[in-house]
Structure formats: C-alpha cells, structure tokens
C-alpha cells in the first residue's frame, strides 16, 4: 500500500508548490513589466534495490514567459515602456547588474533615479538627477534631458542615458530579488551586458504584466481540485490498509 501513499503524497506536495507559483503570478497581474513564471511536472524514478518500478512527481520551474505585455499610456514624463525586446539595467541589492521591464521610474530625495527601489543604471553607473530639474523628458534611445531649476525653457541639458540591453532570453534567470540576471554555469554574477542601441523606449507609457488573470484563476482552481484528489487517494489508501489489518486479525 506504500506505493499508492507515496505517489499521492508526492503529487500533493508538488501541487502545493505549483499553486504557490500560480498565486505569485496572480498577485503580480497588475505589476508593470512582470514576467509570469512557468511551471512543469516531471516524473522522477525512485532509485533503490531491485527494478525501478516506481516514480514520484517533481515540480520544476523551467523559466519565465517572456511574451511582452500591453503598453499603456500614462502621460507621466518618467514612465517608460520598452518597445519590443530589451531590458532596463538596474543595480541589484548585491551590487551586481540586474534587468527589469518595470519602467515606472522615480527620483528619490538624493536625486537618484530608481525603478521599484533599485538604482537605474546609465552608461557610467547609477543616474543622478539634478535636484529641482524641470520639464524632464526621456527620448526613445534612453537619453534623459531636463531644464535646470530656474533655467530658461529652451536651455535643456542632457543628464544621462538609460542603459538598455538585450541579452538572449535563454540566458536570463529570475533572481530572489525579483530581477533577472544572466545565467552562468557556476552560479556567479555574470559580466555586465553592453548597451544595445537597437532597443527603443516609449516615453509616457508603462508595459503591463503579461499574466492573464483569467488563466491564472483557472489554474488555481485546477490545482485545488488536483490537491483534493490526492487527499482522497491518501484517504482511500488508509481505509484499505485498515480493512486489510481487520482481515488479517480474523485469520
């Protein structure tokens, strides 16, 4: 009877793990630039003495869905959306270079340009905006210009240029910080990517999440039903075990 118990137990455990992935996607359905995380089941043979006649299920995350989201116009000067392929380079918490599609940029009290709390990188490091700068604009190539505080409207100055990169999607891996990083064989931080002049921005707009809320909700219901089925299998295994013990006690 242990065959049935362990098979159902592994299925229930992995169903819960998949449910957590779907729930995270659902929670980020309105997060600008978010990329849905994919999940898949795979059969894992049980190794041991004798023939390999049993297998358990394992949940894996093969990657992310890199399909682009919808570009929504906001009219805000510091909102940018990447048109097509490409990424915005930011500084991750550990100091390495990370990549995001979240284009809702903010300027903190020190003038540092940030995206979701992370410092936005330019060609020469983090971009610092002049305090009190007016009429800020971001061109399609990432060039930031503004009028100095108290300056003439026609006296615009170039502040810097956003670092836009376009690494191969297969080399990207989602990190625990929520950013994407270049996948390396030894797990060490990869060298910084070079600026890609072909990446273009849409100013005054934000890219929405590529999560489909309807599909995510259906997946959550499906996982709940699958978990319920696994629990019923465990209950049936327990009932069969009790009946077998009763028959043995009468013999």
UniProtKB/TrEMBL annotation:
GO biological process, one term: bacterial-type flagellum-dependent swarming motility
Main location: other
Residue span, Flagellar basal-body/hook protein C-terminal domain: 203-247
Span of domain Flagellar basal body rod protein N-terminal: 5-35
Alphabetical UniProt keywords: Bacterial flagellum, Cell projection, Cilium, Flagellum
Subunit structure: The basal body constitutes a major portion of the flagellar organelle and consists of five rings (E,L,P,S, and M) mounted on a central rod. The rod consists of about 26 subunits of FlgG in the distal portion, and FlgB, FlgC and FlgF are thought to build up the proximal portion of the rod with about 6 subunits each.
Protein name: Flagellar basal-body rod protein FlgF
Originating species: Kushneria phosphatilytica
